[in-house]
Amino acid sequence: MAEDLGVDLATVQGWESGRRPLANIKAGALLDLRRRLPALGADQTVVGLLDAAMDADRIIGAALEPVRPELHPLAGWVHTRDTAHLIDWAVNGTTPPTLASRPAPARRGPVATAPLLAAPDRGAFIAHLRSTAEAAPRMGGILLHRQALYLASYDRSAEATSWAVHALHDRRGVLATRGWSPHWAEARSTATALARLGDPQPLLDFIERSMVDDDGETANLNYWAYWLGAFTQPQADDAFMRDRTRADWDPVTLLRRGLAQGLHQAPGYVDLYVHSIWALLTAHPWLPQAAPALAAELDERGARLLDGDLVSQRSRRELSAVHYVLRQHDT
Asked: What is the pTM of this model?
């Protein structure tokens, strides 16, 4: 591999061990590496995660070697689902969904099953997220607070869950606003984090109150498109969510990359997925014609949900509307 890439053996060993982080190499060398790896047979999906992986490293590194709040990577950039999943991999050993179906490569000797942080580093990372989340509101760091608090909720220990629930409930006031507000994204993150920790009611309230106007619906779909990778331009803050003129993401890609799969992969958020699919089909009723196989799969998943008791009454009405739209195009 070193010969194929035109580097010495110690360089490759340094990349693998972390002694020489990829983020520290020259920009031109990194660009060349990203081009060469697929040509050598590397999995392009894995290569595509390099940016998210380096962002995850930067966020973890900012905790282990603290930086000024205004320079924190969570303060000047909206992170994506891929980055959050890679951080979860390092904290909890949970394989990201994009990698879960891929076979583990054969190695010689004992090999770690995940890039888990050492226990002291993991503790320092979580402690940093907590202190950052607590301090950020006093400094006006809305984005820093929102993202630090959301990532802190990935700690699954009983003590951490208690802290996260308390901290999140302290911010429940942002859930009371109807429609769009400057705290819309914080309210969404708060509600989804509480749902992941076992309290679904704030998320149901958020759907009922904060998506009652066009701005709220637009913000939800724009955020999904960014979070799921339907458009990839980095965003410095949450203002992009309210932009009704955005034309840089494809509705079919958004449906395919996550919304349809979320109906069975994310049971804690199923009501949010149902509402978002309903809103997407309402805004783009041509979607079933553009992706008939995906529409048929979505219709089947929706029917299974209607046969069960996992969704709210509102979601049942929206699923029925989705089912009607899909069947209209099927006939």
From this structure: 0.87
